[in-house]
Amino acid sequence: MPFSVGSPVAIVNLRKHGRVLDVLPGGRYRVAVGGLTMVCAEAQLETISHAKKERRRERDTPQPVAQTPPPTVPYAAHASRYRMIDLHGMTVPEAFLALPRFLDRAIREGLPHVEIVHGISGGKLRAAVRTFLAGVPTVTCAVLDEKNPGVTIAYF
What residue numbers bound the domain in which 109 lies? Predict the structure, then answer.
């Protein structure tokens, strides 16, 4: 359906309303959307009344209910705010003050492991974290994350 200059249109993939500024060759239109101007193909545009009907139809159509129950999560693996600590920007003494409290809370929650984000930069903080974890008796193993070398995973 060709649009004329000044026609109000809806840009389907962006879900935005605009107004046709120019009709370009090849079935394209220059459309003003807010303070922006963009070029759209005719297939990307709808008349405003048609777009409103589509949105109403989508809103009024009942959505299917999921038939599968959500997976059960064991208590130790529940979401916790004590799963990760970010030490970026901390000095080694500041990290040594934050780590014991963090580990204590994580152990009391029964988490099997925690992530300690120390960053990659110079490696000073990473070495200090690894040294600290070696002295904690409840930490059975501490390894660098395979996907992110700026993170150490400590297992209890």
Answer: 77-155
